[in-house]
Structure formats: structure tokens, C-alpha cells
Predict the structure.
Amino acid sequence: MDGAAFEIDRKDLIEGLGKGLRVIEAFDDQHPRLTPSEVATRSGISRTAARRYLLSLAHFGYAQTDGKQFWLTARVLRLGQSYLTASRLPRAVQPFIQRISMQCGETVNVSVLDGHEVVYVARSNSPRVVSIGYHAGARAPAHVVAPGVVILSTYSDEALDRWLAGHNFCSFTSHTITDPATFRSHVLVARHRDHWMAEQQLDMGLRGLSVVLKDLHGECKGAIGMTVPAQSYTEQQMAERLLPLLREAAQALRPLL
């Protein structure tokens, strides 16, 4: 997972499509409404181009505007839903994570790494009335969740160093690891253990556990894991009760990925 398996000739690329996607990605929870100038700054294109892309998105139903600001519509969700319905990974893992959830009573997730963020692509239905975990489509900075650490542990040292050099180690709690060297050491430990526990890195009171999902060729396809209240399990209890379930599922999934 160090990079694309197929090298694409740049002459075959449609640069306008890439710019249009960057315009969509300019919106987030901190910037739900943007002017063309703001979109231009956030996406690295000219204001004139940003305005044309925004007007096009509005024309095709992916955005709305009041004449000054623009915002995305629910139609954009179709783009992400296409992956969730077309990709083999979410469909293959669902029966396995559902079985784990019924065995331990916790919500189980499967995730992949998208650049510098972990994206959750599948989630079990926990038997708990109130469940903890990430819904399909949710994102989190890779350095604060266990799946990010275990997926990065499959990178070569050179690829890992490139990733570290480009990552923003922002802090979310008093426990968040923001030092790249320390984080790198954690990734190397996870490489040796083949699993990782994240202790209150993103949210206080929560502890995450993940193992790598690999295919028969040993290539990383993502991670399987769960997030639980820290007061419900000690690290030893998670290692004894939950980790074997995740490892068993990861092994069983290898022929299917």
C-alpha cells in the first residue's frame, strides 16, 4: 500500500476532473459554506476557475448557492456511496464483523487509509443499545486511531518517512502523540506485534484496538478493529478477550480479499 499499483501516463489524465474534485474536498465541517475566493485558496486554483466549478456543481445538483456563498448538497453522498456498494471489501467483511460483535457485544469496524486519514468503510450492528464506533464514511486523522498505526506498519521505512514528513500531527486530547519520532516508534512496534491499541488519542475515555487485514499475497487491504470505553476493559483484557477475535477474523478473511 505504498502507492498505486498501476502507473498512469499524465497525458491520459483529465486535469479538470481533478480540480473539480478538489473543489468538493475544499468543504468540511469547519468550512461548510465557502465563497469562490475561499474555495480558490483552499483548492489551489484561480478564483475564476473556482467560480465556474462551483456553478457547475450547483447546475448538476451537487451544490447550492445564495449568490455569494456555496455549500454542498446531499447528492455528493452518492460519490462515497458508490465506493461502499461497489467495493468488495465492505461486502466481504460484513458477516465477519457482525459475528465478532455478537460474540463480544462491541461494535466492530473495518477501515482503510486515504492519504493521511483513516476512512471507516464497514461497521457492525452492536447488540448494545448505545454503541461506540465510527459509521461507514467517517474519517479520522491517521495518527490518533489504531487502524492508522497498523496500516502504516505495513509501509516500507522509506514510504513511512515520506508519510510522516507530510502529516499534520494535530492534538485532540492530552494523550495525543504529536511528535513524529514517537509516532514512528509506535508504528514500528505495531509492525512487530501485528496489532495496536490507541489510548485516548482522539477522545478521552476511549481505547481502540486494530489488526491488519491482508490478502493471500500478504498485501495490506485495510484494518479491522473496535473502539471501547477505557473503563470497560484493561489493556490486558482487550488483549485476552478481543484481540483473538480480530485476529481470527483477519485470518479467515485472507482468501476473500
About this structure: The longest strand covers residues 220-229. The CA atoms of residues 138 and 192 lie 28 Å apart.
